[in-house]
Design goal:
Number of strands: 5
Strand order of the largest sheet: 3-2-1-4-5
Structural class: alpha/beta
Shape: flat
Radius of gyration: 16 Å
Distance between the termini: 22 Å
CATH architecture: 2-Layer Sandwich
Mean pLDDT: 83
Length: 155
């Protein structure tokens, strides 16, 4: 049962995540990292940038519900969907600059491989060809912000 104390804790977390010193203003001249995550009912992304202190700080958060047709996707397809959606969502911040995509799904590297026979994945591969990015597979424990959003659906 969701009670007032749960809502208060949730609101406190949102406040901390959206204000200084955690969240920073976007700056084009910084190194950017896009972290994505897939939950059972949500996909989420966090756009981070490396600051002078060498730490990654979030600049933007996004999440959305998985559509009924997307629930049936295999895990690599859902991970690909999350990346495609996130890059599209943050298009104006990522296009024309080099960035890193971090995911905790090794199978996601299908987007970087040879052209897929799956039309959906092939469309995502073609879309991502217009960007200058590298993929890093990270531990799930290092993908906390996107993971939180994929479980709680904060927009």
């Amino acid at each position: 049962m969701w009670q007032a104390e749960h809502q208060n804790a949730f609101d406190k977390v949102k406040q901390v995540l959206t204000s200084e010193p955690v969240r920073k203003l976007y700056r084009r001249d910084r190194e950017h990292v896009l972290q994505t995550e897939v939950g059972h009912e949500q996909i989420a992304a966090t756009l981070l940038q490396r600051e002078d202190d060498e730490e990654l700080h979030p600049v933007m958060y996004a999440s959305r519900k998985v559509l009924p047709r997307e629930v049936k996707y295999a895990i690599p397809d859902k991970e690909g969907l999350a990346v495609f959606w996130a890059v599209n969502k943050f298009y104006k911040y990522l296009f024309g600059s080099r960035f890193v995509i971090q995911t905790d799904c090794q199978a996601f590297t299908i987007l970087n491989g040879k052209p897929s026979k799956n039309p959906r994945i092939l469309r995502w591969q073609i879309f991502l060809q217009g960007f200058d990015y590298t993929i890093q597979v990270i531990r799930a424990a290092d993908n906390g912000l996107a993971d939180f959003l994929s479980r709680n659906g904060v927009e």
